[in-house]
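Work Package 4 report. The design task specified in the project plan requires that, given a folded chain encoded as structure tokens, an amino acid be chosen for each position. We show below one input record used in the internal validation round.
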């Protein structure tokens, strides 16, 4: 008999320090003139894709800090997203369409399940914390190489709705780290070596999948 599985919501926040903030970039040059947008695209894929399906319980926020109109946030909602294929050009093209919209302080949907707004990491964290205060028991985790082992934290605290925050190729600035910790995040590591952000997301998804299965089978 199959286990009764409970899938709490998962959110990932990735900060792209150089990722451009208008839709003028070329899909042929995601790593170069688009400011390492390739990292953002791979994070979308790692967060959302299963084999022949999408993770409907995942939301991804890309905090984009590159020129010319920083800061902006692009949000992918797994439950609603359409027209997304598992290659970098596909996610790049949806990000580009989102950045072609005029971003305002409130979310605007560009294509199904993809939203954009003006805003920075601090504002996003306070938005997530205020929805947690309204009753969603969301927890913030900052992925850092010297954090607590995710396997220990999973045993104590998960599953429940959780938000995982990651840096890009340059990591996180001290000021950003301060804001993350002030927002109440706990640090987590996913293993003993430093990985690419998109690979960390795959590990987190896998650890949570395995934990869900264990809990469902208890
Ligand atoms: C390529 S790494 C950043 C490396 C960057 N040179 C630095 O020193 O921060 C990208 C992000 O992945 C996450 N990360 C990488 N390895 C990790 C690990 N073993 N445990 C937890 N997070 C990790 C961190 O959030 C990091 O900011």
């Amino acid at each position: 008999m199959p286990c009764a599985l409970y899938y709490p919501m998962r959110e990932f926040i990735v900060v792209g320090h150089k990722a451009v903030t208008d839709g003028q970039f070329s899909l042929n040059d995601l790593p170069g003139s688009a400011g390492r947008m390739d990292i953002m695209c791979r994070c979308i894929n790692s967060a959302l894709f299963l084999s022949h399906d999408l993770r409907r319980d995942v939301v991804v926020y890309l905090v984009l800090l590159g020129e010319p109109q920083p800061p902006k946030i692009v949000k992918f909602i797994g439950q609603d997203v359409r027209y997304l294929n598992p290659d970098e050009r596909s996610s790049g093209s949806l990000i580009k369409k989102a950045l072609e919209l005029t971003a305002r302080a409130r979310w605007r949907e560009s294509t199904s399940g993809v939203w954009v707004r003006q805003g920075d990491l601090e504002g996003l964290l306070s938005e997530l914390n205020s929805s947690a205060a309204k009753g969603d028991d969301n927890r913030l985790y900052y992925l850092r190489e010297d954090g607590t082992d995710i396997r220990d934290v999973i045993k104590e605290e998960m599953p429940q709705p959780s938000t995982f925050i990651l840096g890009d190729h340059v990591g996180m600035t001290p000021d950003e780290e301060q804001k993350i910790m002030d927002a109440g995040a706990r640090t987590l590591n996913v293993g003993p070596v430093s990985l690419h952000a998109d690979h960390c997301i795959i590990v987190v998804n896998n650890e949570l999948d395995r934990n869900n299965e264990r809990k469902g089978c208890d």
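Residues 116 and 210 are 32 Å apart (CA to CA). Validation will be extended to a larger panel in the next phase.
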